[in-house]
Amino acid sequence: MSGSPMGWIAKIVRVGRVVEPAGPAPAPAVKPPAAVRGSLQIRHVDAGSCNGCEVEISGAFGPVYDAERFGARLVASPRHADALLVTGVVTRNMAEPLRNTVEATPQPRLVIACGDCALNRGVFRDAYGVIGAVGEVVAVDVEIPGCPPTPSDIVAALRSVTGR
Hints:
Blueprint: H1 5-15, E1 40-46, H2 52-60, E2 72-74, E3 83-87, E4 90-91, H3 95-104, E5 110-114, H4 116-120, E6 130-132, E7 142-144, H5 151-162
Parallel strand pairs: 1-2, 1-3, 3-5, 5-7
Antiparallel strand pairs: 4-6
């Protein structure tokens, strides 16, 4: 194929959009409250991560994986959220802000722990500034394992909550 713009446009029209099919919704990770079925407003909280999970969350909500098509949407305030997506270990400086954020999120709410650090402290297990895993500080409803979890794992977990 030539490098001309018309050649590239012709290829785009001929090939079309190349993505994996969505497939059936995964089995529910948790029985979500009726208020969050079909739509989930999520506030992301970084409690002390290395930012690996944040990169994958960006990918999950980007144009390739597009978690919004399954009803999951990131919001800017815990007061507008149905769920909190917490990444990283909980550090000494983030324990109280995490508890406050959970309290600021209206009921019914879900807490989703994303990544091995959030689940079991991961590689930061014995670090001096670590209070513990997310489940040791606040109650966790959904767990997404991985270091970091792939965007498809994150989307699958969110789909199990929204039911879409």
